[in-house]
Each structure stands twice: as structure tokens, then as C-alpha cells.
Design goal:
alpha+beta; five-stranded mixed β-sheet; Heat Shock Protein 90; elongated; HATPase_C_sf; transferase; 2 domains; transmembrane helix; transmembrane; 62% helix; 15 helices; two-stranded antiparallel ribbon
Length: 380
């Protein structure tokens, strides 16, 4: 049920209590002018109250909410068939009494304060039409019930929305905490194995010299990059990271990293994914370009997004090569770069020519902006 469960249980209790109150009013009034009709309406109300005791997933569905509004309005408008005109002129409460507020509360919880206000307007209009059609002077019709119904729909809808947002924040915090614990566990394992091997290769390569020295240098670069990726910030720092700190380890004699003097903050997980995508782009340069090919990394903030550009002076990507690689099952660019950035709500633009390749990664600074981009159709 989630955090909405208590709201729906409260509405169920309200419906049952209101049904009992309506039945008590009919009993005290002796069934009004036509007892058979009055008790028939109460019976319909009782049956519908049982129907609306369904769990939240079903109660939120639009057809059931619409049926709730129609049935409740019909029961309200059936009052003149049980009550006499004198009862109506004397200000008798309709048979439904407070039970009529049930769909207003349900719409507020399920669809928010605006939907709750619309449902309140429908029920208030039905009550106004009922009274005016029975000769009640419009000026003398009490509006307290309509005002309270509007307030109930708006307030309950607003509180329900705030509760859902709070639940989502709690879930996100729990995911971040779990990811931090898993990352720390992996970091321990990597430190005890991969990093030690890379450090050994770097040291022995420097001792042997020659081609082994070059392998040692490359191992040292990968060790530095891997240490930066598995580094686990402590405390609140896990919620946000400076992308510059994750990109700087990629800088070597053949890779130039340029970043602004001010931090480039991103959610910690987003920053690590962007850094991993940059690493995948550099791996492609090392694997597919001639030895000695230079690369440049430029990171900057642009209009609510962090943009990272990876450019090289290699021979470029042959036309159709990326599509061919995807067909052959080699998904380096599709998954390691495009997939990572797409999961963050960002975009990837690849431009290639005979003078080099440029890969531009653009990622929204916040998760809210990513969701807004997705809703407006700008996510790719």
C-alpha cells in the first residue's frame, strides 16, 4: 500500500461512519415521507460502501473513481423521492448526509488537490440543484457544507501529494545508502586484488624498462582512475560529488583534462556514471586509434546541465561502424556511453570526421530537471 494506505483506510472508516449516521437520520425521521425509498437508498449506499473498501491499487483507477462520483451523486439526487417537499423546505439534510463527501476525499488522495476540488464542485452542484429544484430559496441555501467539502478535497489532496513526495525521498535515500554500502564492499575487494596487481605491474615495469615500462605507465594510469571511481565518500558527501575530481585522474601525457575553477556538482551516482562513460570513450581511443593519438576532455556547466566533451585527433569513426558493432554484439558505445547517459536523463552527440571524433555528454544537474526533460520529450 505504501504511504497512501493510511489515507484509504481513513476514507473507508469515514464512509462506514457516515453510512451509520445517514441510517440513524432516516431512523429518527421515521423513514421520512416514503420509508421504502429512503431505506432502499441507504441499502445502495451500504453496498457501494462495501465496494469501495477495495485496496488502493484498485481504488486509484479512474473508472472506479468516476463510478464512485456517479453513484454518490445519484443517491444524493434520490432524496426528493423519499423526503417530502416540506422536509426540504424545512432544511432537512439529504439522505446521504456526510456520506456524499466520500468521492471528494477519494479523488483528493488518488489524483491530488485539483481533482479533489473538481469532485467537490460536482457534489456541491448536485446539492444546489437538488435544493433549488424543490423550491428552496437560493439565498437561504446554506453553503457551509460546500465550503467544507472544497476544503476537504483540496487539503486532503495536498497532504497526500506531500506524503507521496516524502515517501519517494525516503526510498531514494535508502537506495543511496544501499548503493554506498555495496560500493564500499566492492571497493574493498578491488583494493585487495585489482589495485594491488596494477601497482605491482607499474613497479615491475619501471624496473624492467623498455616496453615493460610503457605497460607499467599504463597500469599506473588505470590504477589512479580506478581508485577515483571506487573511492567512497563519507556521510552526506555521498549525496553529491564534484565531477572534476572524478575526471582529473584521466589526465595523462596524452589526455588533457580541462574543467572550470568552480565545482561541477552532480548527484554522486550520476557523477560516477558520467566519469565511467568518459572512461569508456577514452578506452575506445586507446583501442581503435593509432599509438600517440591525443585526447582532450572538457567539462563545463551549461544551462542547468553538465556537459562533458571528449575529443581526439584520431582518424575518426568509419561511416556505419557503430551500427555494425551493435549488430555484432559489441555494445561499447551503445551501453557504456549512450546507455549510461540515457539512464541519467541526458543526451549523447557523436561527431566524427577524418580529423578526429568528438563525443558530447550532457546530463541534467538534478533529478527533477531530468524528469522534466523526459516529460517534455527532450530525453534521447
Amino acid at each position: 500500500m505504501g504511504i497512501e494506505g493510511p489515507f484509504w483506510r481513513a476514507i473507508a472508516v469515514f464512509r462506514v461512519a457516515s453510512l451509520a449516521y445517514a441510517a440513524l437520520l432516516v431512523l429518527r425521521a421515521g423513514g421520512y415521507d416514503r420509508p421504502a425509498v429512503a431505506w432502499a437508498v441507504v441499502g445502495v449506499m451500504a453496498v457501494w460502501t462495501v465496494v469501495m473498501l477495495v485496496p488502493p491499487p484498485a481504488a486509484r483507477r479512474a473508472p472506479l473513481l468516476a463510478a464512485d462520483l456517479v453513484v454518490t451523486a445519484a443517491c444524493l439526487l434520490a432524496s426528493p423521492y423519499a423526503q417530502s417537499r416540506d422536509d426540504m423546505l424545512a432544511g432537512a439534510i439529504p439522505i446521504t448526509a456526510t456520506w456524499a463527501a466520500g468521492p471528494v476525499l477519494a479523488y483528493g488522495v488518488a489524483r491530488g488537490r485539483r481533482a479533489g476540488a473538481v469532485a467537490a464542485a460536482v457534489m456541491s452542484a448536485a446539492d444546489l440543484w437538488l435544493r433549488s429544484g424543490n423550491g428552496v430559496d437560493l439565498a437561504s441555501i446554506p453553503v457551509n457544507g460546500a465550503v467544507l467539502m472544497f476544503m476537504a478535497g483540496v487539503v486532503v489532496g495536498h497532504v497526500a501529494r506531500l506524503a507521496r513526495e516524502a515517501e519517494e525521498r525516503m526510498r531514494r535515500a535508502a537506495r543511496i545508502e544501499a548503493a554506498g554500502r555495496e560500493r564500499e564492499r566492492l571497493a574493498r575487494g578491488i583494493h585487495d586484488s585489482v589495485l594491488q596487481v596494477l601497482a605491482l605491474v607499474q613497479r615491475r615495469g619501471a624496473e624492467i624498462g623498455g616496453e615493460a615500462a610503457e605497460l607499467g605507465r599504463l597500469a599506473g594510469e588505470q590504477e589512479a582512475a580506478l581508485r577515483a571511481l571506487v573511492q567512497v565518500p563519507s556521510g552526506a558527501a555521498e549525496a553529491e560529488a564534484d565531477l572534476r575530481e572524478l575526471l582529473r585522474p584521466y589526465g595523462t601525457s596524452r589526455v588533457t583534462v580541462s574543467a572550470p575553477a568552480t565545482p561541477l556538482p552532480l548527484p554522486a551516482e550520476s557523477a560516477r556514471e558520467v566519469a565511467a562513460a568518459v572512461g569508456a570513450a577514452l578506452d575506445n581511443v586507446a583501442r581503435h586509434c593509432p599509438e600517440g593519438t591525443r585526447a582532450w576532455i572538457l567539462a563545463e556547466e551549461d544551462g542547468g546541465a553538465v556537459v562533458v566533451t571528449v575529443r581526439d585527433d584520431g582518424p575518426g569513426i568509419p561511416e556505419g561502424r557503430l551500427e555494425q558493432a551493435a549488430r555484432e554484439g559489441r555494445m561499447g558505445v551503445a551501453r557504456s556511453i549512450r546507455g549510461r547517459v540515457a539512464d541519467l536523463g541526458g543526451t549523447v552527440a557523436i561527431t566524427s570526421s577524418r580529423t578526429g571524433t568528438e563525443i558530447e555528454l550532457s546530463v541534467p544537474v538534478s533529478a527533477d530537471e531530468a524528469r522534466a526533460d523526459e516529460k517534455s520529450g527532450r530525453r534521447s
